[in-house]
Inverse folding.
């Protein structure tokens, strides 16, 4: 099976600084691998199987070798992909990148908390079925078996290929590639392409960003001082809330 | 394009908050419920103007209908289509956005019309800021799940929907989540420990507090996963349990977004942490700055008063 794994398609929230006035400074605006991307690579490798082929797909000036060091055989990088607020636009670029790879059976996208629309929108653009919120996946006959959770229920979804999976990480990456894997990754091929080559129209943006502010949520009531006193204050507050 | 708002719902959670957001977006509010009868009834109880219901087979995920429903939504041409954040609902939404020619935004808090445009507030950077965006043309928005307020109006009627298109072949098998029976899921009060606890033996320190509160014990992921001090089915968060107790008391937990996601629906969150700058003091309802080894016995004493 041939899997395309999409990674590092969003700006890193960790690189953003929030100022006291609610303004945001993007110090490292470049896309970096997301929290869910390692799990997406793992799922792509699992679905492709030992004889399969995993192709990385990334956007902007991200480090294409990131997925290569984790087991992808080659990568495609769309160099001039815009950082868009419209997740449909991001997905359209990703879908065009997927179409540039022949005979793809499955696309795996990190199902990010910050951008929960992208994986599903990639499927919508390709016209392929989507399973989002996936925690693990495996090949099953001519298709894929994907596991996810919904409340107290575990769902095992079987879908025929081609299909798109949105994979959510369950924890931090357990093992990062060593020096040997990183050196091997640098020898693997990376094809660079552009929106024009992919035939993606750059339409005027329908979404215009108008600034940020701090959320006006109720502030935490914080008690400071001697433990006997703060404990009494907390217990009194919880009694008043009626939760004891 | 009409001035109406549609809400695509494949799961029964957070529907009242979602219908309230749809009301604010304007026009006639239609919920498209995709799933069993109980889902359609839950949607009706949230008091939209109407519910269109597509019944799915027991072993059929709602997403099997994504393309067929997208065509139905596009034919109605609402100016705003919303969905709660569960995976199936947002998959239906993303599919509808394409034929509708709609921009797709996520983590959306509110949508309102202003001067022929839509003004959207959304949560960004894990909730650290609210971003305002202006959208020209139709909008598809995944909502940030909001607290369910009781609806102001009578339940809507439910009319069946028979899409022209066919579903794609997809099957789902549902089974109880391993570990879902853990006592913390139904507990009214939960006391949870994080890496602020220094050793497994120190869990004994919590016994008195658990008894005084009638609470169940939970923990952060590293306490169960890395340290193995507490059974895995008791850790709370994005990849652990999602619980909705009346009181969630976090002891020595820093308050990372992945952890707090599991207690979003708790009524009151209180935290004890010795670092006044701990992120949990930005999101909890109540906080005590102090050493949990001193505050816990003091809490037991205060509860006995
Ligand atoms: C994809 C992904 C998914 C994840 N899913 C989850 C999840 O589901 N659940 C989860 O919990 N985590 C999850 N995590 C991990 C999460 O990011 C945090 O690392 C974790 O929640 C931190 O646990 P903690 O608060 O116990 O530890 P820490 O972050 O180390 O915090 C310990 C806190 O204890 C305080 N402290 C220390 N000593 C004392 C004392 N004597 N008295 C009082 N306070 C003290 C410190 O000030 C500190 O704030 C996930 C991470 C990733 C990347």
């Amino acid at each position: 099976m041939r899997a395309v794994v999409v990674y590092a398609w969003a700006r890193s929230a960790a690189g953003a600084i929030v100022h006291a006035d609610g303004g945001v400074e993007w110090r490292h605006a470049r896309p970096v691998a997301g929290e869910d991307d390692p799990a997406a690579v793992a799922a792509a490798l699992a679905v492709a199987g030992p004889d399969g082929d995993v192709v990385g797909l990334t956007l902007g000036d991200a480090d294409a070798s990131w997925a290569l060091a984790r087991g992808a055989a080659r990568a495609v990088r769309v160099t001039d992909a815009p950082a868009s607020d419209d997740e449909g636009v991001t997905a359209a670029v990703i879908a065009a990148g997927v179409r540039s790879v022949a005979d793809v059976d499955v696309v795996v996208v990190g199902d990010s908390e910050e951008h929960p629309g992208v994986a599903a929108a990639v499927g919508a653009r390709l016209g392929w079925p989507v399973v989002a919120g996936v925690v693990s996946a495996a090949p099953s006959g001519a298709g894929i078996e994907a596991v996810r959770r919904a409340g107290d229920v575990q769902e095992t979804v079987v879908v025929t290929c081609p299909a798109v999976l949105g994979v959510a990480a369950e924890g931090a990456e357990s093992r990062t590639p060593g020096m040997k894997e990183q050196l091997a990754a640098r020898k693997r091929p990376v094809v660079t392409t552009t929106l024009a080559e992919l035939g993606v129209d750059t339409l005027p943006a329908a979404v215009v960003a108008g600034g940020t502010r701090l959320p006006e949520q109720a502030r935490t009531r914080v008690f400071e001082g001697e433990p006997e006193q703060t404990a009494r204050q907390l217990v009194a507050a919880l009694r008043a809330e009626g939760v004891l | 394009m009409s001035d109406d708002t549609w809400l695509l719902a494949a799961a029964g959670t957070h529907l009242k908050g979602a219908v309230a957001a749809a009301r604010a977006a304007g026009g006639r509010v239609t919920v498209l419920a995709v799933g069993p009868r109980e889902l359609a009834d839950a949607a009706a109880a949230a008091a939209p103007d109407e519910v269109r219901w597509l019944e799915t087979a027991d072993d059929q995920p709602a997403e099997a209908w994504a393309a067929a429903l997208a065509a139905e939504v596009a034919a109605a041409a609402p100016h705003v289509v919303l969905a709660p954040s569960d995976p199936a609902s947002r998959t239906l939404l993303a599919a509808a956005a394409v034929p509708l020619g709609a921009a797709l935004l996520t983590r959306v808090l509110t949508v309102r019309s202003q001067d022929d445009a839509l003004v959207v507030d959304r949560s960004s950077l894990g909730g650290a800021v609210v971003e305002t965006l202006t959208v020209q043309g139709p909008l598809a928005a995944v909502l940030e799940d909001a607290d369910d307020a009781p609806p102001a109006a009578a339940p809507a009627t439910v009319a069946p929907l028979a899409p022209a298109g066919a579903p794609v072949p997809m099957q789902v098998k549902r089974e109880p989540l391993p570990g879902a029976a853990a006592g913390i899921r139904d507990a009214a009060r939960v006391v949870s420990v994080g890496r602020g606890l220094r050793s497994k033996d120190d869990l004994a320190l919590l016994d008195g507090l658990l008894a005084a509160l009638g609470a169940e014990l939970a923990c952060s992921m590293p306490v169960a996963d890395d340290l193995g001090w507490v059974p895995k089915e008791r850790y709370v968060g994005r990849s652990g349990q999602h619980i909705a107790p009346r009181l969630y008391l976090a002891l020595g937990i820093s308050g990372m977004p992945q952890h707090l996601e599991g207690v979003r629906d708790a009524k009151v969150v209180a935290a004890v942490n010795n670092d006044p700058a701990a992120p949990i003091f930005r999101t909890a309802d109540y906080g005590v700055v102090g050493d949990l080894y001193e505050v816990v016995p003091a809490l037991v004493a205060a509860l006995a008063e």
